[in-house]
Amino acid sequence: MTPMIEIASLTKQFPPITAVDGLSLSVAKGEIFGIVGPDGAGKTTTLRIVCGLMNPTSGTVRVTGLDVTEETEAVKDRIGYMAQKFGLYPDLTVQENMLFYADLFGIVGEERNKLAVSLLEMTRMLPFRDRHAGKLSGGMKQKLALMCTLLHRPEVLILDEPTNGVDPVSRRDFWKILRHLVGEGLTVFVTTAYLDEAELCDRVGLMNGGKLILLDTPKNLKESLPESCYELRAEDVRAIRETLRRRPEIADVEMAGSKLHVFLKPGASEDVLRQTGAEYRRVLPSLEDVFIATVSKEASRAA
Prior knowledge:
Number of strands: 14
Radius of gyration: 22 Å
Largest sheet: 6 strands, mixed
Number of helices: 11
Order of helices and strands: EEEHEEHEHHHEHEHEEHEHEEHEH
Strand order of the largest sheet: 6-7-8-3-9-10
Structural class: alpha/beta
Helix content: 25-40%
Number of domains: 2
Shape: globular
Distance between the termini: 42 Å
C-alpha cells in the first residue's frame, strides 16, 4: 500500500542554517504519526514543506502519491493543515467562522449545513455555536480551528503543535477527537511539545538539530535504551543527583518531578543506588527519558 506521506532525503537550508537535514520517513493510512523535539529541531519547517507552503532545498515529499512540489494545488485539496496560530475571526461566532471557511472551500447549501452540524456534535461544540470565537477558551478555539480544517473532508490532517498552551483536560478531549477521526479513516501527522501526547501516537519520530534521531512506536522506544532506568525517592534528591553524577557506573541522572530517574550503564550493579540510602525501584523509562538520553549521547559524540 502506498504511504499517505512519504518523505525522502528531505533537506531545507536557510544559509548558514540547515533546518531539516536528510529527513526520511513515511506515514501509513489511518496512522497518528507524531514528531517531537525541541524548538529549532525542524518540526514546523517539515510540516510546511509537506503542506506545499515551502519548497525543499533537496529531497522529495509525496502526499497521497502526489509530489508536493510539482502537484501542490492537488495536494492542498487532499490535506487539512492547522498551523500553530490558526486564522480564526474573533468577531465572528463559531458557526459564522465555519460557514466562512466552508465558502472558501466551495462547500455550499445543504451539504455545508449538514457537515457543520456533524462537526459541532463530534466536538461537543453545538451548545457554543453562537458564541464569538474571541470569547472561547483556548481548548474551544482549538476545536473550532480543527472543525474549520476538516470542512473539506481531507484525507490527511496535518497539525503543528495543536494543543500548545491548552489546559490538560482540553488536550485530552482534543486527542480523543483525533483518535475518533483516525477510526473513520483519516491519517494524522502531528508535531507536539508534549511527550505525554507523543505516547498517544501510533509511531513517534524524535527530531533534534534538523535530523531524525529515533523513530518507532512509543513502546519500542521506551524499551530501546541499553541502560537500566531506576526511579529514586529521597528527601534531598538534588544532593544525591550530584553524588551519582560523579559515579562511573551512572550513565545519566535526571529530575522527574520530585524524584530522580537514574540510568545505570549495562552491567552496573544496583549497589551504587543502595549506597545512597534512598528508596528506589526499576521502572520503564518515559519518552522524555529516552529523548534526553539520546540527545545527550548525540552531543557527546559531536563533542
